[in-house]
């Protein structure tokens, strides 16, 4: 019978195995543990000797052995899968997320990973592991896994973590773009990431030595325009704030806060930190000189929401310690501290997101930002929406300039640290 012969065979083969095991253990599991510990110590010492003698292959030129490469990727896939469990995926179909994600992809990912119509740089292809050309890789990952990778980066691979760990909202914008990338045409990519421009100077790693010397801001401004538009009006959708119409002091303060890492944004921090102080000053001056533009194409919100926004902005909520906003942000005439941004005519989604960040303690900003932390602290989501809709519905206007005579009324950070009197 085949079954019995198989059984005999097992018995025959297992006999030597059993006698070897009983020799090893001598009937005691303690000896097994001791033997395993000895082997591990020998292997550890051997590995340390190899490392000390400098014999471990660390050259990127030789790549990984197939087995090492497989093991590392397996470890990464398992770690990402396990550690991204429980991450809730927010709705990702907002066109503003796509724009913001594409804009940042061009700054921070393209050189390593390539993109629609864009090859990876030849230099990064010499890395081990090589950053993959990303479009065909996206389908292998669930959205929460992409989020995890982009937020945390991957150790030992040069895949960087998100520069502003507090800004999950920005990481989701990148995920929204990544998911739209497979099958995207090069034209669509240019439209999203470059605002339709095909200016060669916008390529992130192109040296700009061919630019005329008398226009040193040229290539820098071309990059800002990808997102904030040439007229400083943003690109619609509310992905990028309007800059035109802000005071020079506020713009410079914001840029310096990003550069110092005191205002948190994985999109703006790397850009501002990469520019010299004099360039930041010139940029602030440039945008402050542009006439204010409103490009808020969103449908007009319901009249009762606007009315609620108006009441909140003018009166605040005395019972909950929410100050009136108009005192510092207008639209009332009269000089204001130039460090108080003009929010009239700003995009509603941008205003709402900044209020949410203030409430969550994730906004940062200049030395005046603490004023807003207390001002926004107790706003409900509905109140934030009403305030954002109300201010977005106003025409954009620059605040009246502060003159010698009025400058004593506009205050210093210390003077303004408590919210103004409520009415
Ligand atoms: C300095 C180069 C570099 C930059 C910049 C970079 N990455 Fe990576 N990325 C890597 C490397 C290296 C890997 C790991 C490749 C591997 O494990 O084989 C990786 C892996 C990934 C993966 C997983 C790919 C896969 O299927 O294994 C994703 C997704 C990813 N990166 C997205 C991004 C995004 C989005 C950005 C921009 C925010 C970015 N990366 C910026 C180098 C980079
Ligand atoms: C990839 C798109 C992108 C590029 C390029 C870019 N920005 Fe921004 N910018 C943003 C986003 C997104 C924000 C909002 C960030 C936040 O949530 O704090 C922002 C915010 C700002 C703010 C703060 C505005 C406010 O109302 O507080 C200033 C000032 C600014 N950017 C200036 C610039 C300048 C100058 C350049 C060029 C050197 C530039 N940006 C390039 C996307 C971009
Ligand atoms: C005492 C003055 C003051 C009051 C009152 C005040 N704010 Fe502010 N607000 C500021 C300052 C200062 C900043 C800029 C902080 C920074 O970036 O350093 C700011 C920033 C903001 C921003 C972000 C703008 C941008 O471009 O990023 C929004 C939105 C905002 N305030 C809305 C409000 C609302 C709504 C209220 C009323 C509930 C209010 N503020 C009350 C002083 C004030």
TrEMBL record:
Domain Cytochrome c: 96-182, 212-291, 311-395
Region (Disordered): 399-423
Keyword match Iron: yes
Keywords tagged on the record: Electron transport, Heme, Iron, Metal-binding, Transport
Keyword Zinc tagged: no
Top-rank taxon: Bacteria
Polar residues bias: start-end ranges: 404-423
PROSITE patterns in the record: CYTC
Protein name per its UniProtKB record: C-type cytochrome
């Amino acid at each position: 019978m085949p079954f019995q012969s198989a059984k005999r065979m097992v018995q025959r083969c297992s006999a030597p195995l059993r006698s070897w095991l009983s020799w090893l253990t001598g009937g005691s599991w303690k000896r097994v543990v001791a033997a395993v510990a000895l082997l591990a110590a020998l292997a550890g010492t051997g590995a340390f000797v190899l490392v000390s003698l400098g014999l471990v292959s660390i050259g990127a030129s030789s790549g990984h052995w197939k087995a090492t490469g497989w093991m590392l990727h397996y470890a990464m896939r398992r770690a990402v899968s396990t550690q991204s469990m429980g991450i809730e995926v927010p709705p990702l179909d907002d066109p503003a997320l796509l724009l913001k994600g594409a804009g940042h992809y061009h700054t921070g990912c393209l050189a390593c990973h390539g993109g629609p119509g864009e090859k990876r740089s030849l230099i990064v292809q010499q890395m081990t592991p090589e950053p993959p050309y990303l479009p065909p890789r996206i389908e292998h990952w669930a959205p929460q896994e992409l989020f995890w990778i982009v937020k945390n980066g991957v150790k030992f691979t040069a895949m960087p973590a998100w520069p502003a760990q507090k800004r999950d909202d920005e990481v989701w914008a990148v995920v929204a773009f990544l998911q739209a990338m497979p099958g995207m045409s090069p034209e669509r990519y240019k439209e999203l990431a470059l605002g339709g421009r095909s200016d060669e100077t916008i390529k992130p790693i192109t040296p700009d030595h061919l630019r005329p010397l008398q226009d040193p801001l040229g290539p820098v401004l071309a990059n800002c325009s990808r997102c904030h538009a040439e007229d400083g009006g943003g690109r619609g959708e509310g992905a990028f704030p309007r800059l035109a119409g802000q005071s020079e002091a506020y713009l410079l303060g914001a840029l310096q806060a990003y550069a110092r890492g005191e205002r948190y944004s994985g999109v703006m921090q790397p850009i501002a930190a990469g520019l010299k102080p004099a360039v930041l000053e010139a940029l602030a001056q440039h945008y402050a000189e542009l006439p204010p533009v409103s490009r808020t194409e969103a449908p007009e919100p319901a009249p009762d929401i606007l009315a609620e926004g108006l009441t909140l902005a003018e009166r605040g909520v005395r019972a909950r310690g929410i100050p009136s906003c108009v005192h510092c942000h207008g639209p009332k005439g009269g000089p204001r501290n130039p460090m108080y941004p003009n929010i009239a005519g700003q995009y509603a989604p941008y205003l709402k997101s900044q209020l949410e960040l203030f409430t969550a303690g994730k906004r940062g900003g200049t030395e005046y930002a603490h004023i807003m932390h207390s001002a926004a602290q107790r706003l409900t989501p509905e109140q934030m929406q009403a305030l954002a809709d109300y201010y977005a519905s106003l025409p954009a206007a620059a605040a009246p300039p502060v003159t010698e005579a009025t400058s004593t009324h506009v205050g210093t950070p210390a003077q303004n640290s408590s919210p103004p009197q409520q009415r």
